Amino acid sequence: MKATMPVIAILGAGPGMGLAIAKTFGGHGYRVALLSRDPAKQKPLVTELSTRGIISAAFHADARDRGSVASGLAAVKQRFGSIDVLEFSPCDRTLPLPSATELSHEDVEVWIDFYVHGAVAAVNQVLPDMLARRSGTILFTTSASSVHPVPRFGAVGAAMAWLRNWAYALHAAVAPKGVQVGHVAIGAVFGRQPGATPDAIAPLYWELHMHRHEIEKVFLLDVADWLQVS
Q: Which residues are within 8 A (CB) of 215 and not within 5 positions of it... i.e. 6 or more apart?
């Protein structure tokens, strides 16, 4: 029997946007599954959410390992029941960031594996259930380079643009079947720009979840400034 409390699975959860999204949905009665490469690092997040009365748990999933994505989301379903909302926002600051003029096959491949194949693996794990019950939400997060390309992010920006394109196509395919797909693009540096905080951005995810005719939200304080990122 499906639990009465809905579930959000955040793949790529961390102390920034992941925690802010968890607090936003948790504040609306959602149980929260925090998925990352190192679940032990999620203990402080679980503790903080608990102080707010939000039920949460940490699970292992690596966006570059499609098997771990599948097993991690399967573990969430076993623990909490069906996943009502999937939010995909992995981050790995150890990966190379070649500019648009310095791309290699290996650089492109690693970002395609990370964002494209990781997202496809996650969606394939949750979408069949969502379509079967004709409800659910899938939310993707990228930087604003998916919308406004900049030379510095040549490889990762292209992979994110692929993900954005797929979000639009997926929305067109599944919205008539009761499933919402949305994309949030973030063009801000936390801690450097006034007003650029995870807590200020997190409500955009709830808005996309609730306003199911919308597909995209872009948080960008200054387009000109973003395009000059070097």
A: 167, 168, 171, 181, 182, 183, 208
Q: How far is residue 73's CA from residue 35's CA, in Å, rounded to a whole number? A: 8
State the amino acid at position 202 in one-letter form: A
Whole-model pTM: value is: 0.94
Strand segments (E) across 61-122: 85-88
127 — phi, psi (to 5°)?
Answer: -65, -40
- 156-176 pLDDT per residue, tens: 999 999 999 999 999 999 999
Can you read off the two tokens belonging to residue 221?
């304080």
pLDDT in tens, 9-27: 999 999 999 999 999 999 9
Question: CA 124, CA 204: separation in Å to the nearest integer?
Answer: 24
- Identify the DSSP state of 193: S
Angle formed by the axes of helices 118-133 and 154-174, nearest 10°: 10
Which positions ≥6 away from 211 have C-beta within 8 Å? none
- Classify domain 7-227 by CATH architecture: 3-Layer(aba) Sandwich (3.40)
Q: Where along the chain do its domains lie?
A: 7-227
Cα 66 from Cα 169, distance rounded (Å): 22
The CA distance from 144 to 35, in Å, is: 23
> Tokens standing for 229?
């990122």
